[in-house]
Amino acid sequence: MWLFVGLGNPGREYAKNRHNIGFMAADEIVRRHRFSGWKADRKLMGEVADGEIAGEKIVVLKPMTYMNLSGDSVGAVARFYKIPIGNICVFHDELDLPPGKVRVKKGGGHGGHNGLKSIDAHCGKDYWRVRLGIGHPGDKNLVSPYVLGDFFKSETWVDPLVDAVAEAAGDLTSGSEVAFMNKIALQLPVAK
After folding, report:
1. Is 19 known to be catalytic?
2. Which Enzyme Commission numbers does its entry carry (predicted)?
């Protein structure tokens, strides 16, 4: 069994924020692979859906704790379903990647990302990270309003990226992270 976690902030006002691209990926995985509908669970502090991709049982989580406390929910779900840390895959925004670029890695640092910092504190660091590039505003003083700002209509790479991530998600559970990244790269238009 695997746990896919989309990071973001709950609430309609955050839905189209750059920080919520993890939620967008989780929503598309659930939709595309016809998982159960989202169910709010107070004990697990999030919304969960479950289904199967490529023969693997997967629970998808959107923590409803706000980004900085994501680890509370991720830890609760991992314990409840007895999912080992090596079978947790977190989809999150990444400032240090150009818009539309994707990188997958296991373990590592949080790079200043408060959601990852919280997960590290509750679960350890040896989980998979799907880093979804949103670009950097160019000045560290602009980071907070940038990640909490909505994607511009001109950022036409967002929907194709989220679609490609959902389409290739099965490669993550089979240990083919390189195949996952290659499939996404082949499906995406060049980001502008």
Report:
1. yes
2. 3.1.1.29
